[in-house]
Design a protein that fits this description.
There is one protein chain. By secondary structure, the protein is α/β, with parallel strands linked by helices. The chain has two domains: about 220 residues, Vaccinia Virus protein VP39 (Rossmann fold), CATH 3.40.50.150; about 160 residues, Nucleoside Triphosphate Pyrophosphohydrolase. The protein has eight helices and 21 strands. The strands form five sheets. Strands 11, 12, 13, 14, 15, 16, 18 and 20 form an eight-stranded mixed sheet that branches. It has a seven-stranded mixed sheet with strand order 3-2-1-4-5-9-8, sandwiched between helices. It has a two-stranded antiparallel sheet with strand order 6-7. β8 and β9 form a beta hairpin. The longest helix has 14 residues. This is NUDIX domain-containing protein. Belongs to the Nudix hydrolase family. GO terms for molecular function: hydrolase activity; methyltransferase activity. It comes from Streptomyces finlayi.
């Protein structure tokens, strides 16, 4: 729901004036601080490579984070701030910094006329705008596959947690020496944020909690990592290896998603399909150990069971045989993939997600479609049951050799 009258512009104008009156500017950070505490949570890396990219700073405040990204990473940042006093603080101190444009504007109105951005972020600011207004504007104002990363309040000083209703509530903002100011903000559960983002064209990659370092401090922030869903015109085909059903003892298997900055790892089967590393589960073998064993046997790379995240089961049938495939995400490994003697799959190669090949093995196609529904992969119908909703970054941020 929208509120017709919000105290937020007046609140941030008063807040900025208080800071102007005492001539305070925060120091330039060494990395982004998504919550209220130094050293808590990730830093700049969650936005991905930024050199030369157009980046939107939502509610840029004093401008120090925008300047940091421009100077440290070579980003081209549009720092959009509605409060005139906050905008004045930024321009007074950083107005001539190359790579940053400080814009005094409403971010929703700005997105209606701006060229689409390659990334966007907000540090405890985006939740001050009705998500039914902000999220569609961001969807239309970001390029396909562009990241949107933002933090939002989860639990306040009184231990009051998030709501499942998409409605604003009043919080306060203040500093030592000033009266607390009212602030309308949307304090929502992780599931509600995920549902809203999904409905408005984003894929949620991770939602994590940032907790105060002091054990008696109840304040918690959420860090939400999402990505504008890609719009690709063509479908990538998949096909079975042969017309024969799998033998019964081979009907339970695993497929491993191994993703590096070079792309997704796929190998060529002797029967012509391109597929993820994986294979059959041995009697009494934990699924994570199956993934580790098959990776070593098929590719020569090594991983640990604790580096394997099971995504869920995919159930379909081939002929009269019920086939169960478990998708898994490998977040760290060592070594370089190579063709192994006596294996039926080899010629391992890294494929960018936006350049996946035709001819995927149908089980691999089903796993990838369940993991990333935005990928344009045609695959046989199957029932996917996720094990748990992910709350840690996906393998988009994993790396080889960890």
């Amino acid at each position: 729901m929208s509120v017709e009258v919000s105290p937020n512009p007046e609140t941030w104008a008063a807040y900025g004036q208080f800071q102007l009156d005492r001539s305070y500017m925060p120091p330039l950070p060494e990395q982004l601080r998504w919550g209220f505490w130094d050293g808590v949570g990730p830093g700049d890396d969650v936005l991905g490579p930024l050199a030369g990219k157009r980046v939107l700073d939502i509610g840029s405040g004093a401008g120090h984070y925008a300047v940091h990204l421009a100077q440290t990473h070579g980003a081209l940042v549009d720092a959009v701030e509605l409060s005139p006093t906050q905008h004045q603080r930024a321009t007074d101190h950083f107005g001539d910094v190359p790579g940053v444009r400080f814009l005094h504007a409403d971010v929703v109105e700005h997105l209606q006329q701006a060229q689409p951005y390659e990334a966007a972020y907000g540090i405890c600011t985006l939740a001050g705008i009705d998500p039914h207004i902000a999220l569609p504007a961001l969807r239309d104002g970001l390029l396909p596959s562009a990241p949107l990363v933002f933090s939002a309040l989860h639990t306040n000083w009184h231990g009051h947690g998030p709501s499942a209703a998409v409605a604003p509530r009043e919080e306060t903002v203040g500093l030592k020496g000033m009266e607390p100011l009212p602030l309308q903000t949307w304090v929502l559960t992780a599931q509600v944020w995920e549902d809203l983002l999904t409905d408005y064209g984003f894929t949620v990659e991770a939602i994590s909690q940032l907790r105060a370092p002091e054990p008696d401090n109840p304040v918690i922030c959420q860090l939400i990592q999402a990505r504008r869903r890609a719009v690709l015109p063509t479908q990538i085909t998949s096909r079975p290896r042969s017309q024969r059903p799998p033998v019964p003892h081979a009907a339970i298997g695993v497929g491993a998603i191994v993703l590096s900055d070079r792309g997704l790892l796929l190998g060529l089967h002797q029967r012509g399909t391109l597929e993820l590393p994986g294979g059959s589960v041995e009697v009494g073998e934990p699924l994570e150990q199956t993934v580790v064993r098959e990776l070593a046997e098929e590719t020569g790379i090594s991983a640990r069971p604790e580096d394997v995240t099971l995504l869920g089961t995919i159930v379909d049938h081939v002929g009269d045989v019920v086939r169960v495939t478990v998708g898994a995400l490998v977040t760290a490994w060592q070594g370089e993939p190579a063709t192994q003697p006596s294996e039926s799959i080899g010629d391992w190669a890294w494929w960018p997600l936006d350049e996946l090949p035709d001819g995927l093995f149908e089980c691999s196609a089903q796993i990838l479609a369940a993991w990333r529904p935005d990928l344009p992969i045609d695959n046989p119908p199957a029932h996917f049951t996720p094990y748990a909703r992910r709350t840690t970054p996906s393998s988009d941020s994993g790396s080889a050799g960890a």
